[in-house]
Amino acid sequence: MAELVDALDLGSSGIIRGGSNPFTRKRSIMLVYLETFGCQMNELDSELVKQQLKNNSYKFVEEDKSADIILVNTCSVRDLSEQKVLSRLGYFKLLKDMKPQLIIGIIGCMAERKKEILIAYPQIDLLVGPNRLYEISTLLKNIIGISKRTKQVSLFNIDRKDSSLELLERMDLERLQDIENRKQAYVRITRGCNKFCSYCVIPKTRGFEIHRNKDAILYEIKALVEAGVVEITLLGQTVNHYPEFHALLKDIHDRFPKLERLRFMTNYPRDISDDILDVMRNSSRICKYLHIPAQSGSNKILKLMNRGYTREHYLALIRKARSKMPDISIVGDMIVGFPGETQEDFEQSLSLIEEVQYQNLYIFKYSPRPDTVSFRKMIEDVSSKEKQIRHFKMLSLQQQISLKHLKNQLGKIVVILVEKALNAKLYMSARLIGRTEGNDVVIFQGSRDLIGKIVNIRIEYITSYILGGSFVSEFKNDHSYEDHKKTSQD
Ligand code: SF4
To answer: Is 237 in the pocket of ligand 1 (CB under 6 A)?
Structure first.
């Protein structure tokens, strides 16, 4: 608070003293609206930014119109996501025209990637890349209360020797100051990526792969579990490339018996070892769930993508995972319309999907990103119309497969973690929503007391790719994976 008061030049009343400051702010607390685009890594970054600002006495609001500061945490993986941010910037400019003291900040990957363009936007006051997020409160302090603002910019691709790594680490741990009342949490174990897939900007925006110290990860998880968190998802762009990842998984599983569910994403196919699959197989509270993007079913396209594996290798891996854990949920990503993708290549992607029988699949149309090899060196020879057609065909195929999977659940008792209530807090009984360990979404009617608990639900119907059912009992995870399988099959 003291920091903010200094920055605002406030008297003890909390009202800005006259003089050079053009604002007539009547409160001492700055209100922040934070909007997040992109993946789970961005969600986690936003949570950490929130915590950092809360620690400095900022308050968060749900509405952009009531904010003093608007922050947008951005994603550069696809052009569409960047376009959405640019269009939001047009709207935020209108807000700023009405309220000139409004501070607008662009943070995350797009700030890093599009710095030259964004810096010219008059409405932007702050640009901060993903590896400099720990500086936000200091940079805001440089802006708040200054009548003639200068843009605050902090962008940097991290390297291992840089002391900023320590500051980033501190930001991850700062969240531990406010972790009451939560049941689920993301924990980052790796930053950046070294794989250099030919279409991907992440190594450029987030920098080289850097693994967090194992002790820091365990310390963070211990605090989260002691605060009541029952599900943790370990995050990394290639999470399974963490050194001795199987040992880390086993360690977390064995040390924290109160942790009901342990997940991890996203996996890089080439780095899934037998050790990892065995630890998953033998640890009852590690979710039998693998998010493992193939991106294409054609060896020619996989090579052009620089993915580092073949269709055969990928399929062998899926077979191996299923032989060890027959009911494992496999979730994937696919790109359609990559440069050079012929109809035959596309058909190979479809046949891979048929063979894998993904429980869920994220399908993307190829989006050329400047600064990538595919953008610089390959000709974009699949028209947007053709991409649209392929996207539709692939989606239709996956919908059939997903529906088949959901129909197979009818009549079974599944185990879910209850996440929240869908309706307003009028009665104790509510429409509750949760997820199975394979990430199927399940709704049922039940008492709000069940939120945060693991429960058994009998599946009775399917609606819009969501399972619906009724409450059976609370689940006690005190048996092995084999036992668990038996009880969940009714
Ligand atoms: S593995 Fe490839 S697609 Fe994934 S973040 Fe790294 S470079 Fe990007």
So the answer is: yes
Q: pLDDT of 45-84, one tens digit each?
A: 999 999 999 999 999 999 999 999 999 999 999 999 999 9
Q: Are residues 258 and 389 in the same domain?
A: no
pTM of the model: 0.89
Would you say residue 162 lies in a domain?
Answer: no
Does one domain contain both 148 and 214? no
When divided into structural domains, the chain yields a total of 4
| SS3 per residue for the chain | CHHHHHHHCECCCCCECCCCCCCCCCCCCCEEEEEECCCHHHHHHHHHHHHHHHHCCCEECCCHHHCCEEEEEECCCCHHHHHHHHHHHHHHHHHHHHCCCCEEEEEEHHHHHCHHHHCCCCCCCEEECHHHHHHHHHHHHHHCCCCCCCCEEECCCCCCCCCHHHHHHHHHHHHHHCCCCCCEEEEECEECCCCCCCCCCHHHHCCCCEECCHHHHHHHHHHHHHCCCCEEEEECCCHHHCCCHHHHHHHHHHHCCCCCEEEEECCCHHHCCHHHHHHHHHCCCECCEEECCCECCCHHHHHHCCCCCCHHHHHHHHHHHHHHCCCCEEEEEEEECCCCCCHHHHHHHHHHHHHHCCCEEEEEECCCCCCCHHHHHCCCCCCHHHHHHHHHHHHHHHHHHHHHHHHHHCCCEEEEEEEEECCCCCCCEEEEEEEECCCCEEEEEEEHHHCCCEEEEEEEEEECCEEEEEEEEECCCCCCHHHHHHHCCC
Distance 268 CA to ligand 1 centre (A): 8
Q: Is ligand 1 within 6 A of the CB of residue 309?
A: no
Closest C-alpha to ligand 1, atom 5: 237
Q: pLDDT class for 486, splitting at 50, 70, 90?
A: very low
Instruction: Indicate the top mutation candidate among 78, 195, 295 to test ligand 1's pocket, ranked by most ligand atoms within 8 A of CB.
Output: 195
Q: Is the CB of 193 under 6 A from ligand 1?
A: yes
When the pLDDT of each residue in the chain is averaged and rounded to a whole number, the result is: 89
Q: CATH number of the domain that 108 lies in?
A: 3.40.50.12160
pLDDT class of 172 with cuts at 50, 70, 90: confident
Does residue 205's CB lie within 6 angstroms of at least one atom of ligand 1?
Answer: no
How far does residue 270's CA lie from ligand 1's centre (Å)?
A: 12
Q: Is 197 in the pocket of ligand 1 (CB under 6 A)?
A: yes
Looking at the fold, whether 10 and 59 belong to one and the same domain comes out as yes
| pLDDT tens, residue by residue, 426-447 | 777 889 999 999 999 999 999 9
| pLDDT tens, position by position, 449-467 | 999 999 999 999 999 899 9
Q: Is the CB of 10 under 6 A from ligand 1?
A: no
Better-predicted residue by pLDDT, 261 or 9? 261
Read off the pLDDT of each residue in 164-172 and give the average, rounded to a whole number.
80
